[in-house]
Design brief:
This protein has 2 domains: 1-178, Farnesyl Diphosphate Synthase (Orthogonal Bundle), CATH 1.10.600; 219-358, Farnesyl Diphosphate Synthase, CATH 1.10.600.10. The protein is 75% helix and 1% strand. It is mostly helical. GO terms for molecular function: metal ion binding; prenyltransferase activity. Keywords: Isoprene biosynthesis, Magnesium, Metal-binding, Transferase.
């Protein structure tokens, strides 16, 4: 079995085990949460959070958490279950609020929490809006509570909660500068990288790495700079991939439509690269499509043709690979300190990500 196959098998195992754990968590939540007996809306809020949470993807954050612990030891590590629940509950919080900000009707093959509330309260848009915000807030609170309730030494619980609190604060700021980015006609590369770092890399990569090392008894603060660098590089690469696929991806393979960033007028990596590469008539075509919610498949096809002809697609792929290779070199430097098998996972992970956009 190749290293990649073995790693993918471990990732699939983490996913199966965690999905069962998450379901059990929500089964217990109704009895452990001090829900007002007279409230009709609270159980419904918990139901929506459960449905969204259990419609998860590959649980890569959970995999990163477990592989981070494997950097230190291949023995069972206490606290990983609580950390995994916290990571995914924080993700649920982010999805609820993201879909509200983006006015997204669907998420993970079902209705977004916001649109579920809009359907439930068609004559009370303010209530639908407020309940969506509160549902996301509750998921965030639960992500911290699960750590405080974990059967771990108090110092470890406190450190883990601090990691997640910092990750959440960084993500909130990332959302703010993400919205700010779209007010700039053409944001520079530094701003695009900063959005990717704050909005996703810090909670999706850095926090799971930090939590896994903490649970395994390591002191991640001693390696903060290289952990942050690795997470930032992989986060930038991942955001580039997502932005690239939004224009050049296959909707059937991705399970969602392409062109969302174009129709919403978002200044993504792809959009900024496209604007930088065109002028004259071609630029007028691109600018006319940006922010037009009625953009047709033919319009998107025309933009793809322009982007291909101007080398935008190839340039984005090159940039993804460059960042992935930089991240791989950072992880390769961990070999003298940590276990080979897990180091190899983190070394190859960024390159696997690039291959998904090939």
């Amino acid at each position: 079995m190749t290293q990649q196959m073995a790693a993918l098998e471990r990732v699939a195992g983490y996913e199966r085990r965690f999905n069962a754990l998450f379901e059990e968590y929500f089964d217990r939540l109704g009895t452990t949460l001090d829900t007002p007996a007279s409230s009709r809306f609270t159980p419904d809020c918990l139901r929506l959070l459960r449905e969204l949470s259990l419609r998860g993807g590959k649980r890569m954050r959970v995999a990163l958490l477990h592989e981070a612990a494997r950097l230190v030891t291949d023995r069972p590590v206490a606290g990983l279950d609580a950390a995994a629940l916290s990571v995914e509950l924080l993700q649920t919080h982010g999805l609820v609020h993201d879909d509200l900000i983006d006015d997204s009707p669907t998420r993970r093959g079902g209705p977004s929490t916001y649109y579920a509330y809009r359907a439930q309260f068609p004559d009370h848009p303010g209530a639908a809006l407020g309940l969506t915000v509160l549902a996301g807030d509750l998921a965030f609170a639960l992500s911290l509570r699960v750590l405080h309730d974990a059967d771990l030494p108090a110092a470890v619980r406190q450190e883990m909660a601090e990691v997640q609190t910092r990750a959440a604060a960084d993500t909130f700021m990332g959302q703010i500068i993400d919205l700010e980015r779209d007010f700039a006609p053409s944001p520079d590369e530094d701003l695009l990288h900063r959005v990717a770092d704050y909005k996703s890399a810090r909670y999706s990569l850095l926090a799971p790495l930090w939590l896994g090392l903490l649970a395994a008894g390591e002191r991640p603060a001693a390696y903060e700079d290289e952990l942050r660098r690795y997470a930032r590089l992989v986060g930038i690469c991942g955001q580039m991939r997502d932005d690239y696929l939004d224009l050049f991806g296959d909707p059937a393979a991705m399970g969602k439509p392409t062109g969302t960033d174009i129709r919403d007028g978002r200044r993504s990596y792809t959009v900024v690269a496209l604007l930088s590469a065109v002028s004259g008539t071609e630029r007028a075509v691109v600018e006319a499509a940006l922010g037009d919610p009625s953009g047709t498949p033919e319009t998107l096809a025309a933009l793809r043709d322009i982007a291909e002809e101007r080398g935008v697609a190839a340039g984005l792929r090159d940039e993804m690979r460059r960042h992935a290779e930089q991240a791989s070199r950072v992880a390769a430097g961990w070999r003298p300190r940590w276990r080979e098998e897990a180091v190899s996972f983190f070394e190859h992970l960024p390159l696997w990500s690039v291959e998904r956009a090939g």
